[in-house]
Amino acid sequence: MADPRRLPHGEDGGPATGPGYLQHHFESLVQQKDASSLGMWLFLVTEILFFGGLFLVYTIYRWSYPLAFADASRHMDVRLGTTNTAVLIISSLTMAMAVHSAAAGRRRLIIPFLAATMLLGTTFLGIKAIEYTEHIRHHLFPGPWFHYPGPQIHARPAELFFSLYFAMTGLHALHMVIGLGILSVLVVQSRRGRYTGQWHTPIEMSGLYWHFVDIVWIFLFPLLYLIGRHVH
Amino acid sequence: MNQTEIQARESLHPEHIVSPKSYVAVFLALLVLTATTTLVAFVDLGPWNTVVALGIAFIKATLVVLIFMHIRWSSNLTRIIIVGGLFWLAILLALTFSDFATRGWLPILRMRP
Amino acid sequence: MAAEFIPEAEPLHPRDNYLNVRYGVGSWLLTRDHKRIALLYLASITFFFFLGGLFALLIRLELLTPGGDLVQSETYNKLFTMHGVVMIFFFLIPSIPAVLGNFLIPMMIGAKDLAFPRLNLLSWYIYIVGAAFTMWAVVHGGVDTGWTFYTPLSTAAANGHVVATAVGIFITGFSSILTGLNFIVTIHTMRAPGLTWFRLPLFVWSHYATSLIMVLGTPVIAVTLLMVGVERIFHLGLFDPALGGDPVLFQHLFWFYSHPAVYIMILPAMGVISEVVTTFSRKNIFGYRFVAFASVAIAVLGFLVWGHHMFVSGQSVYAGMIFSLLSFLVAIPSAIKVFNWTATMYRGSISWRTPMLYAFGFIGLFTIGGLTGLFLATLGVDVHVHDTYFIVAHFHYIMVGGAIMGYLGGMHYWWPKISGKMYPEGWARFAALIVFIGFNLTFFPQFVLGYLGMPRRYHAYPPEFQVLNVMSTAGASVLGVGYVIPMIYFAWSMRYGKNAPANPWRSTGLEWQTTSPPPTENFPVPPVVTSEPYVYATESEVVG
Known about the structure:
The complex is a heterotrimer.
Chain A: H1 29-64, H2 66-73, H3 78-103, H4 107-137, H5 155-191, H6 201-226
Chain B: H1 3-12, H2 20-41, H3 48-68, H4 76-100
Helix pairs in contact in B: 2-3
Chain C: H1 25-29, H2 34-62, H3 73-108, H4 117-139, H5 153-157, H6 162-189, H7 202-234, H8 247-281, H9 288-301, H10 317-345, H11 354-377, H12 379-385, H13 389-419, H14 425-452, H15 466-496, H16 536-543
């Protein structure tokens, strides 16, 4: 067995196959990549449970006040919601393509795909902001100014619905903002030529994060926008 | 994991590169499913509206996880982690529901929140 | 691990180790060495341990007399709240994992570091930022909701700095998540050649189980406190009964994490005890796989029992029955561990060194704490003793009698490895005795008080409870002395202690196969593991 101390190292042993790919405490790139991937998936599990707490609250209250929740959800703009869902799905495609470009060694395509993803992410947040503005203008933000335009019998549980709506979409939007921050770092690093076909773990891991945030929205969309549509 | 095992893995499992065609196929499927779930929501199916909406959401999420997130080609450990995370979420939901769903059973406590 | 023992006197103080390789504040604050990060944690949690202890002493002083004479009831509420917050979130949860786990897991598995060294340093900084928020709240008048932050008290009524404290705990939670994540990835990917899962020391198994709880549970408390925060600031009425929200739902979310959090405190201590008991009985552990899987079973079952904190909260009786039944199940793996440690000691060659004294203390006190837990898991009995001093005594037997005993035992056991110095054995045995006496004097009377009906969280009580309260307060003073003595001699030993040999206890663990203190890369030559841990029996056959 080779003495690992003699293996070419990144940070303190000088470049092996590129600028500092292999950190000193790992034995090989495969081990390092396994660790990153495992770590990222564990992080996503924590995210499942993080959002899970809100999904639990939603489920309990929806189960307790089905009619009020259905009624309140009809104050959502389905057209904007569906558009935003589509925007996020397209952004997942461009993100997947950015990872693909990196893995296939097509380094020139990485930045365009990342930029497209960021543009779509920003579009999503823009549309969300328009929705928020509309809700606030119609006194649908919970608290002292809340005024429910629908049947007053549903007014109080409807305020619960809007509390959950703002908490869940707000937390999701926060994750989008963080995602945009991560992507801009990736763009800068790609410009510096950090990523190669052999080593592009950060792009891959960020891709996982982006897709995860997309999945959260895939569930938020029907739960918040669609549940009351069939009631007339 | 020792050096030889690592080298063996490296040669046996080169990184899987997914063809862009499968990405585009998944993308189109996601768009179709989004359109479906929106349209179906306007049809009155009674309690089935929720089932259909959540079912479609699960299919969409599964597609994203399998193809975009490469789980189709990844190790069993990663799959166990995902299933474990969902299972723990299920514990949270199920045991909390064991409270809310049975509150009305006792005649003297027939009140819901 | 090979039963090869380095003679006691041989490698005295090697020239280059992780402590003297670099000097200066920057070399500590920017270090990525898991051993140095462990010491950063040690310094921080020691501060919080004594801060929390100070609150405890003030609580006990107030309870010396029946009248509410030392502090006002509001101040008293703040004292027990901050005692709980500081001790649980800033001392007990990080204690063994972040100090001993951080230091030892890479060494026990023959790795150079944790999988993500920078993330490890980041989790310490996150801990410090969270601690800063909480300290700000403490200095500016504190918080009085109890460490449980029950709504609607915390969202609508409490006057204290609920948000600052909650933000502090929220942030610190991420430190815990990242530590757990780092441990899991490290144990999966960084094991030395030949170190299979069933050759891992039980300390590593128990930390693996602990990390599972940290990763799966902590996000839920984070989002729950976030909800409390937005409800308080933005008036999103998530748990507001006025809107039809349900405060009991908050309790479900809170205890989904906070019950397993008790196992975050006790499981690592159990790992310490497994190492100490085998070393000082000079025997292989009895039923290795049972002990290992019991750790995982405790972690998993721990997520199924949270409702036993809510038997009198308005939770459905039927849910109470389910939670009661499931709670009894936790007794099985816990008892397996206690029985297996006892069986390990049976006919062992026991030496009464300080770590072993703490292990004895742990086993006895944990057994009492665990068995009284069964009383509380029983629906009918819980209604009688709920929110009395009975429960206070019960969880202190687990958290102080169990977790802190384990922590102190571990600190003594690995102190030669960490510092390269021996602690004074006589003083250490004396302090262990003081801690044991002080602990029992403090908390045993509380069982009686609780059973007689003294409720928790009040600053005054009927005069007939005074004798037992005086005993408890006297015990707390003794316990305080017992905690200060090790502080003094550990500090003393760093300068004046005898140099420690590589393996003072003739232990089989991998961490003892390198020098004391270890070099930065842990092992001069990466180890290869050829046998199971705890192969003491063969040695005694050869020797004896």
